[in-house]
Amino acid sequence: SVHASARIDPSFRSFRHSTHERLSPECPVEVSTAAGIPRLMANRLYQVVRTLLEANRSPSMKALDLRNSSDLQCVNMMCEKVGEACVCRLSRVLEKNGQELRSLCLADNKLTQLPDIVFELPHLQVLDLSGNALEEIPESVVNLKILKVL
User: Fold this and answer.
1) What is the pLDDT of residue 79?
2) DSSP state letters, the chain
3) What's the pTM?
C-alpha cells in the first residue's frame, strides 16, 4: 500500500551531484554522476546486491541497487500491475532483509508508487528514485531520520 503523499518538487527530477561524495564514515557508499544521473557505488566495505533473488538471500545487506531492473516487473497474474513496474516483490524482500540497508537505488524503473516499508528502514541514508513515474513522495519520508541523499 501507499501512504498519503506530498507533491514532488519539479527540481527533484534534475537532482545532480557534481563530484564523488562520501556520505559519512558509517555509510561507505559514494554518490557520483554519470551522464547527470546519480549512481550508487559501494567501496570495498559493502557488497552491492543487484537482484531481488540475491537480496532475499542477504539478511544483512547494506546496499541494494535495482536500477533499471527486470526484477521490478510484476509477474504475479493476480496483481493488477502484471507486466508493469510493481513493488510487491521488493516489499517482501525489504520486510525480510532490509533492516540493515544503508543505500537503496530504485532508479529508472517507471515506478508509480513505493512500498510503505521503504519509509520504515531505520538505517537508510541514500534513496535514489530518479527516472521513475512518481508523481508524489509519501509524507512518511520524514520517518527516514538519517536520510542524507534523496
Assistant:
1) 82
2) ----EEEPPGGGGG---SS-EEEETTEEEEEEEETTEEEEEE-TTSPEE-SHHHHHT-TT--EEE-TT-GGGB---TTSTTTTSB--HHHHHHHHHH-TT--EEE--SS--S---GGGGG-TT--EEE-TTS--SEEEGGGGG-TT--B-
3) 0.71
